[in-house]
Amino acid sequence: MSMKRQRIIRLTLSYLVVAIMSVIILYPILWVFGASISPGSTLSNFSLIPENPTWAHYREIFNLNESSYMIWYWNTLKICIITMLGSVLTISLMAYAFSRYRFWGRKNGLIVFLILQMIPNFAALIAIFVLANVTGLVNSHWGLILIYIGGAIPMNTWLMKGYFDSIPRELDESARMDGAGHLRIFWQIIMPLARPMVAVVSVFTFIIPFTDFILAKVLLRTEEQYTLAVGLYELVAREYGSEYTTFAAGSILIAIPIAILFLSFQKYFVSGLTAGGTKG
Amino acid sequence: MRKGIPLMEQVYKSNHRKIATFLSVIPGLGQLYNRQILKGVAFLTMTIAFLVSFWDFFAEKGLWGLVTLGTQVPRDNSIFLLVYGIISILLLFFAAIFVFIVFRDAYKNGERRDMGQRLNTIREQYRNLIDNGFPYLILSPGFFLLVFVVILPIIFVFLLAFTNYDLYHQWPAKLMDWVGTANFTELFGTELWRSTFLNVFAWTLVWTFGATTCQIALGVFLAVLVNQKDLKGKAIIRTIFILPWAVPAFVSILIFSGMFNETFGAINTVILDAVGIPPVDWLTNANATRLALIFIQTWLGFPFIFVMVTGVLQSIPEELYEAATVDGASALQKFRNITFPLIMFSIAPILITQYTFNFNNFNVIFLFNGGGPSVSGQKAGGTDILISWIYKLTMTSQEYAIAAAITLIMSAMVITVAVWQFRRTKSFQEEDMM
């Protein structure tokens, strides 16, 4: 009897914690949705469900004459996709070399990567700002993309190498016996087997430019070149909080596709990260 | 001593190896002397091409500029000269590696001739290059990118910390100079700088430990809670708990900065109002802002830990718990002696990256309140951490050299702590990792 009562108390407390956490997580999301359908541009008389809800802010965002939101969206997607493709290709090749070959400089290279992964690439913020000025890459998307790819290399190469190490060597050795070349083994044996890790690295390298604020803010100067992070910040910051409702509508529109993408990838994260990152 | 060659034949019969090595002072000649015409011509061409394209660069700008940082305004731009100087050094470094390879190749082939062995044919050399050179071939694109967009900026910041580059030493009006350790002396010798630095540093540490520990504790707690066997609706609960991770952080932070707004934000007008607490000045009182920031980072950061720990929990064998139950262990004892050590063993390296991440977590500090509120008699805002302070020094007040000095100190600290921690975690020491 007391066992049963203990169990009921334990489960009730657990559900209570889950309920409280759910409220804390969902409330800001509902609040911003409420803000996005509030009339006017500020939230002086705000309530979670406004009395006169309006879709005007969403319409404004999609109107190319009134807002640059769609341009920012396009810029962000362009930068993210190119960064992702470029990173995954260079990172996979580098991880393949580090995992499968023994060559002069390998060990020191790995140590350098370990140290570089600890210095975030915006620690050299001053340098990036000045270098961009020197090389004329200010306000250019290509400059940003190169910095994102370079910055993603150290950490993700370690992650990917860890996963490659866990793929049995016998597989590529027997392929080599059958006469397969280096690149063929890479494309047809290693890469298909490493698909979960490739997915993880793809999402990581896609998310970094998507959520990065600081580098984009330093490098991008004109409104037509902004990414979503910089553009939305400017909406809120322009005159403090003056465009908050428009900003809220913009936030909802970004959060939904990213959340869907993310939730559909989540099963790879657990297996991929535990295998590659920790060898747990 | 080479294996498989009878001892008698290891006696050198001639001196080709020395002559070939000596001739390699001009890269390519050694190879030509060894009658490897194609290779020799290739090396010679590369050398000439390198010298032709970069000679002026080295002589007129690169190395001279690095030493002097310019002598005459407005002809010389110190910053440009510094960049050219670093590029020259990097190019010379690559050239040194190339020359080393050429010398080694000339010596090796000369040695084979001395011992009367046949040299590789062009076809064999080509196969050799493809085989042994393959890792270098696939590493090189990433390597060059790394050198120019990651390593070059780091060297640049390092050097900048020893110059006087600021608002008053800028092209076209002024040149900048090497000032040795003057920036560091100013940082720690001047009262204003020192007190600001110490305040910012103290808050950075409190922030890093506070925010990271909260997010880890909450993540582990919730993962263990949701993992209970008899808890229903796991899939939906987990999906909700991952949501803060799925929404881009900059969006969430800006949303929170609206929610904490003192006049229209929901925290003051709805939540505190409902429980009868008077409004809190979240954005103008430094301590309130700090509290809000730690809350926000916990909200943003726990899902990542939650997902990781959930993964680890799946892999703990059920027998361990059954055995513990037989021995009469309580739920708390099971957690302390089985679950917690196993979780820590698996995710320790990731926890370290969480601490370093928050140490540099610019987004949440800057987007929430711009590092504010401002503090009188200080050069930084009340919640500025080192990285956001560096941003302000660079972008707002153009104190580049001091900002570089702070960056240098900060990077040194992060690297020291992280390397020390990594060496202690087990996965680093595994044979196969290196």
Automatic annotation (TrEMBL), chain A:
Chief place of localization: membrane
SUPFAM superfamilies listed in its UniProt record: MetI-like
Keyword Cytoplasm attached: no
Superkingdom per UniProt: Bacteria
BP terms from Gene Ontology: maltodextrin transmembrane transport
Subcellular localization(s) per the UniProt record: Cell membrane
Alphabetical list of PROSITE patterns matching this protein: ABC_TM1 (PS50928)
Identification of the protein by name: Cyclodextrin transporter permease
Species name: Pontibacillus halophilus JSM 076056 = DSM 19796
From TrEMBL, chain B:
Family matches, as Pfam families: BPD_transp_1
Gene Ontology cellular component terms for the protein in this record: maltose transport complex
Subcellular location, record wording: Cell membrane
Major localization listed first in the record, in broad terms: membrane
Entry's transmembrane regions: 41-59, 79-103, 136-162, 200-227, 239-260, 291-313, 338-357, 400-420
Annotated ranges, domain ABC transmembrane type-1: 201-419
Keywords for this protein: Cell membrane, Membrane, Sugar transport, Transmembrane, Transmembrane helix, Transport
Any one GO BP annotation for this protein: maltodextrin transmembrane transport
UniProt membrane topology term: Multi-pass membrane protein
Gene Ontology terms, MF aspect: ABC-type maltose transporter activity
Family affiliation: Belongs to the binding-protein-dependent transport system permease family.
Official protein name in the record: Arabinogalactan ABC transporter permease
Organism per entry: Pontibacillus halophilus JSM 076056 = DSM 19796
